[in-house]
Amino acid sequence: MPEFLETMRPTKVGIIACSGETLPEGTVTRIAARLVVEELRPESTVIMCLPLFLAGDEGEQNFAKFFPTICIDGCEKQCSSLGTEKYSSKPTVIIDLKKAMKEMNIKLNPEETVELGKNGMKLARRIAELTADKVDEILLEIRPKDA
Amino acid sequence: MILKKKAIILPCSGIGKSFGTVARHATYIVTKDLRPEATTTFCLPLLQIADKDALDLVKSNFVVSIDGCAKACAFKDVERSIGHPSDAKVMVMDVLRENKDLRTKQVTFLDENGKKLARKVAERVAEKVDKLLEGN
User: Is residue B27 within 8 angstroms of chain A, CB to CB?
Assistant: First the structure.
């Protein structure tokens, strides 16, 4: 664990999805991130806009510098994790959707970018649950006495 | 007819407010329904990692940015990436001001108002595309 996290003991984890527009995987990361902050861990997470980093928003950049973050990448380009590291700080956890899809044996229809089908929604839910588990692990490590 | 240049539609796809989702859906309406031959899109975060193919695409075509809120991330990301602003921009908030009955709060899945607003935004974008491609 980085030293500053031991000192600050943050109570929130930032969730950063690639949210890519051209692949259904981007839509999956987007919906998974929303499920985490709206439904699974609303008290312990905040959602962050990836495009704000490049746009130069200091609030977003500083949050990711001083708080733990989980990046969800939809493809091998890794825009979420690389963009976060480039403009702010290295993410605490990276979730690789393609790798998870292989492990879960789930395939997506390339036409599902606008609206996910049954498989896409199932995948989004599972990625959200995986992300929520990682949130718990991060906070348990930072604040073991509060757990 | 073969177009020399296309219009690249880049939405902010903001994830914290409904307007980002509206911008994202408007892009799909333009690129898949209203102007499929004249437009395309790509993942905005590719600009963040300076992806060569994405940069080449925005440098060699027209760019229309769609922003959900005043932070104007799509517009700024294009400007920071290629050194000049997008050729045209559409703000969801501006379209909402003209259609106040279409207020929406749903972020993850757009409600009926959100879908209607996205259609209005898409129509505005299509108008911008037509102007940009005049004489192309």
Answer: yes
The residue ranges of DSSP E strands in chain A, in sequence order, are: 13-17, 45-47, 69-73, 93-96
pLDDT, tens digit only, all 147 positions of chain A: 566 656 667 789 999 999 999 999 999 999 999 999 999 999 999 999 999 988 888 888 889 988 999 999 999 999 999 999 999 999 999 999 999 999 999 999 998 999 999 999 999 999 999 999 999 999 999 877 655
Q: For residue B98, count CB atoms less than 10 angstroms from its CB and return exposed for 0-12, middle for 13-18, buried for 19 or more.
A: exposed
Asked if the model's pLDDT at residue B125 lies above 70, the reply is yes
Q: Is B39 within 8 Å of chain A by CB?
A: no
Q: Which residues 62-91 of A are in CB contact (within 8 Å) with B?
A: 77-80, 82-83, 86-87
**Cβ atoms within 10 Å, residue A59:** 9
Position A12: which residue type?
K
Residue A21: exposure state from Cβ atoms within 10 A (0-12, 13-18, ≥19):
buried
Domains annotated on chain B, with CATH: 7-131 (3.40.50)
Residue A71 lies inside a defined structural domain of this protein: yes
Residue A142's pLDDT is: 85
* Rounded-to-integer distance, Cα A61 and Cα A55, Å: 10
The tally of domains found in chain A comes to 1
Give kind and range of the element (H or E) at residue B126: helix B112-133
In a domain, A47, yes or no: yes
Decide if B36 touches A, using CB distance below 8 A: no
Q: Which of A19, A54, A77 sits opposite B15 (nearest CB)?
A: A19
